[in-house]
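Case study.
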Amino acid sequence: MELLQIAEPGQSAAPHQHKLAVGIDLGTTNSLVATVRSGLSVVISDELGRPLLPSVVRYLQDDVPAKVGYEAKDAQALDPRNTISSVKRFMGRGLKDIAHRESMPYDFEDSAGMVRVRTVAGSKSPVEVSAEILKTLRERAEASLGGQLVGAVITVPAYFDDAQRQATKDAAKLAGLSVLRLLNEPTAAAIAYGLDNAAEGVYAVYDLGGGTFDISILNLSRGVFEVMSTGGDSALGGDDFDQRIFCWILEAAKLQPLSAEDAHVLLTCAREAKEYLTQHGVAPIRARLNSGEIVDLKLTTEVFTEITRTLVTKTIQPVKKALRDAGLTVDDVKGVVMVGGATRMPQIQRAVGEFFKQEPLNNLDPDKVVALGAAAQANLLAGNRAAGDEWLLLDVIPLSLGLETMGGLVERIIPRNSTIPVARAQEFTTFRDGQTAIAIHVVQGERELVSDCRSLARFELRGIPPMVAGAARIRVTFQVDADGLLSVSARDSTSGAEASVTVKPSYGLSDDEIANMLKDSLAHTKDDAQRRALKEAQVEAQRLIEAVRSALKNDADLLVAEQQSAIETAIAKLQAAMLGEERRDITLAMDAVEVATRDFAARRMDKSIRRAFAGKTVDEIGVISESEDNKHMGEHA
Amino acid sequence: MAVTLSEKAAKHVASYMAKRGKGIGLRLGVRTSGCSGVAYKLEFADAAEPDDVEFESHGVKILIDAKSLPYLDGTELDYAREGLSEGFKFNNPNVKDACGCGESFSV
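After joint prediction, the assembly is written out as follows.
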């Protein structure tokens, strides 16, 4: 019979309607699955009580299911070509992106988009291999929770790009999992420690796994973590510490070069000694080798610390760099989270504590902390939240949001992949003298021209006091709330006039459409840039003409007839150039107008200064404000 | 009339409550739904209701609304592990017929 869990008050699910959700840490070396039971995140172990699943898949003949986990790992030496480990390093990567591929035992095959591996069961993509791991975890979770999962939160490294993230999503789909969200690993660790409910500020996540080291600097603001910078070393991990002990054993016991089997035995001894030293001051190392030699040594913490000092230092370098990249210093960091089994080593704890000048957070199991955080997030996203629980949404907007400026150009306000909720503001100004209204056209997309983007909304801001072009300051604010709802407001800073609109930006866009829009923007990057430059020149030229015309209207008396006609001729030439497609022609014609009006401009300046100074002391004149390079917006979009 | 917790169940409840950091006890109840008529309710309790009947078992306070009590009288809540699954189990002497999953029952 079904075993029940304790629900939050008033949240007992109707029978058969428990929303089962899990968090999955899909790791390079090991993977885990966790869930929330009676309000508490726990890792789900296999039948033998083992929480970890080695991220290793062994393919057998075509019609035999692949082996995943310990069984596959044990067969690695036996069947290296068909036993794939560390597949995470291949996700979303082409053949040429893979480092040290010549030292790997796999039969790689180049393929469009992503590398593949030829196995006895056929050619496999990293997505398929990862799907095997995810499927094993899904089956484990379903057996434990007694039902189908509504979805999973899967963690990915903070530095994963779109291709790697998409590959992870595809793997989940193939494994029959619905992805509630991909969550950055450091963010998951921070959530596991409840930092999302902690004081706002900067947190560092130090993740030393078996074979990789990652450092992430996160900023928590209004319950949302933002990744400020990342760093690390993809070839540094706990295994390197084993290797150092192994070398020490060889030297201390004065051993001759070893057989592969003996090396394996000693490497296991080395790892056991390392683990023993996290709790003890001295580790015994005893082994009888095939060669008949007997190893009987004692490794002290002091010696271990000494032989691994350079490794520890090697992790601190990327930490310094990540802080520098984020523009921060050690004193800005509010808390440090330790992730990865290798952070159990006392010398690591000490070095990190000394560097950050504070005790790192380490009371959760560093192997499980990412999965535990992912489970907590999955539970919230599945809707199993307690009444009144703050629930944060770490989502990103899929396409950039912006608005139309003169010439049909897009000014991007919120770039795509910004985590929501988010708010950004930018100042705009008027295009014509005496312009009292501006049209605001909100668009979505990655292209440079409005006509190639998706129109979301239009509204007008009226009541701007008449001023010369470029003098008005209109602050436009884009705000996307936690539910993905966009509101755009515009405010004129002199009159206080305001207008706003609310839209749902992702409404009606399928994943495919979003993907197509992104693909489009990549394909058109170059000609978009050229078209944008042309449009910008046209807008600039139009603005110049308007400015000169308005000056002529007011101060024509400062000019003699020939000067005036020279200016008119230059303007006519510029107008002709504007109709063409050559940006160069436009800029040359603009230069000509500038030259023709230089004298005129100087006279106007003298006149207005004389006017301004008449009967005033210097104090009253004040500082001339620097003109800002605000974009112009027209009255009619 | 009484409803009790097994020692194991009480230990788990106490540890969940400690980690949750708030609450006065455990609320048990039934409601009409499910494939066999009535379904169990198992929740943390943050406050007592006026018609609650209270019990205490191994140091854990149990709250049951008066209407639910007849369905639950004599029940012992146990904690069990079955294969990969673990959780709470109602050992209820009033049950005549339970649905296959045990989440709902009739009396």
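Observations recorded in class. Chain A has four domains: 1-193+366-385, 196-363, 395-525, 526-632. Chain A has 15 helices and 29 strands. We will return to this complex in the next lecture.
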